[in-house]
Amino acid sequence: MEKETGRVFALLIDADNVSPKYISAVIEEMTTKYGSLSYRRIYGDFTETRKKSWKEVLRDNSITPIQQYENTVGKNSTDSALIIDAMDILYTGRVDGFCLVSSDGDFTRLASRLRESQMYVVVMGEEKTPRAIRMACDKFITLENLIEQDEIPAKKAGSGKQTASKKQQVLSRDTIVKAMIDIISSNDDNGRATHLGELGSKIDARYPDFDTRDYGYSTLSKMIEELEGFELSKKGTAFYVSLSETSSKGDVYAFARNLIAKAGSKGLDIGDLSNQIHQSYPSFSPKSFGYSQFQKFVSSIPGTVLHTEGTIKKVVMEEN
User: Fold this and answer.
1) The domain 249-317: what is its CATH number?
2) What is the rounded distance in angstroms from the CA atom of residue 266 to the CA atom of residue 269?
3) Which of 273, 278, 263 is nearest to 300 (CA)?
């Protein structure tokens, strides 16, 4: 995303669901990319022995601890205190956004409520953070990525492979590539070039938990440079992204016809056809052929016929 350093944020940390090792990186990420932190508060029972490791971290980062005793077993007073403070801060009108640091999905409704009040909401949590809260905020950042950043340059350039530690929460590369193609194709249809910042913002809007660091890249521009089917160009001081013409339209048609012919009289499921075309031509999009849907593209393939069998759609070669 583009830097939003003019915003003022309230940083609220759930000590019950975050390790002290992340805090310095959290503050650096926020102040470097998002804005200033007018509130820095952390919530938990700091009389517990296991919380003693927080002392130096709070002092070194000027974070105010909000002590919450566990008055009742099984009841989380920390969550309640953080939520009440968040709403109090919201009503002061002194901030533009909130950064909630927790892996607890119980804060999903809070994130949604703050966004409803036009607050920009950043959530930072570990890889285990539930999908619900990831989608409830404007931007989700995986905490593990913040302390792994220094390892990124050491990875093989262009490998783009997710580390073994990444969980299923990480969006697939295919999902992100498809989103990029849709955004760029839509702009192309309207005669507009796609600015790199616009592409990043629209992907974030669609997938708040998208982070190039999940794929081994420090920035979106570096990721695009290594992806097949995309071109990054510079005009003045601005960067633009476009779909590369790696193959002619005739090549795609010929490739599709060959697959359909191999399927013979039984035909080829259009879902399977779509997968194979995208694997061989990563930048393929029906929109580049003038069609809004893949099915309409299939119907345009010379010498083929589209059949529907119940809910299954198959394409076969025309009989001579």
Assistant:
1) 3.30.420.610
2) 9
3) 273
